[in-house]
């Protein structure tokens, strides 16, 4: 039976037929953790762009508008959470700002988590015009944002060299609108560190992440989904960050071990690096508590 108190996420991000990025990374973990998930695909691709060939479509504001009109007409738009990730079209991203207002009018307690997927390691994934839309129209509406270090630098127009720089950037973002800022990863002095802060108590929480010598496509999408879940289910920000990072790191380790053990000469290397989400069901439901967060 539908209940206005149920955990129900509208997740708007990319979709791939084969592999795990975007909604394919987010849906299964959220469902395992007790959330209903309604997915809208901002792009629909055969596979992620790390493969030699990618085919598919990018949705625009008209596509999104039509889907929302159908949900509204049937009174199906009561959500506890909105989650947005990769968007490939400026008009689509601009429509999201209208959508946030629409969903919060229906449920004023709705929490909007924006994963501002723009790029990584100094490289943009999106058309440059979307950066300004994120800054001016989307980030001010978000309750929680989960940028990586490169995205944090883009959103705040400052370079990150230290944890003090991260703290300054987080304080800057509080003034833009978000109440909680979580940096999925920063590389500072050759240490990989996740950072979380909440504007209510001004405390910054950090957690050191052991490095795995491969980058995994879809790990940021998984991070955002896991943090949405654990920030809802856990009693405090520190516990939410620990659960998120321990789950994510364990899944990446499992993926790394699979790739190292796979001897199939016909399998592309990029295929071996697809996240082992289904094989990690038990990890998602019962994450280890090996990595501990501290207050900075």
Features:
296 residues, ten-stranded mixed sheet, 10 helices, single chain, alpha/beta, two-stranded antiparallel sheet
Termini separation: 44 Å
Mean pLDDT: 95
Tell how many strands the DSSP assignment holds: 12
Give the helices and strands as they follow along the chain: EHEEHEHEEEHEHHEEEHHHHE
The gross shape turns out to be globular
Structural class: alpha/beta
**Residue windows where pLDDT falls under 50 for at least 5 positions:** none
Radius of gyration: 18 Å
Q: Strand share of the residues?
A: 15-25%
Q: How many DSSP helices? A: 10
Spatially, the strands of the biggest sheet line up as 3-2-1-4-5-8-9-10-11-12
**Biggest sheet character:** 10 strands, mixed
What do you see in this structure?
By secondary structure, the protein is of the alpha/beta class. The protein contains 10 helices and 12 strands. The protein has helices at 23-32, 61-73, 90-106, 129-138, 149-156, 163-176, 219-233, 237-261, 269-272, 281-285; strands spanning 8-16, 36-45, 56-58, 81-84, 111-114, 119-120, 123-124, 144-145, 180-188, 191-198, 204-209, 294-295. It has a 10-stranded mixed sheet with strand order 3-2-1-4-5-8-9-10-11-12, with helices on both faces. Strands 6-7 form a two-stranded antiparallel ribbon. Helix 1 links the parallel strand 1 and strand 2 (36-45). The chain is globular and about 50 Å long. The model has no long low-confidence stretch (mean pLDDT 95).
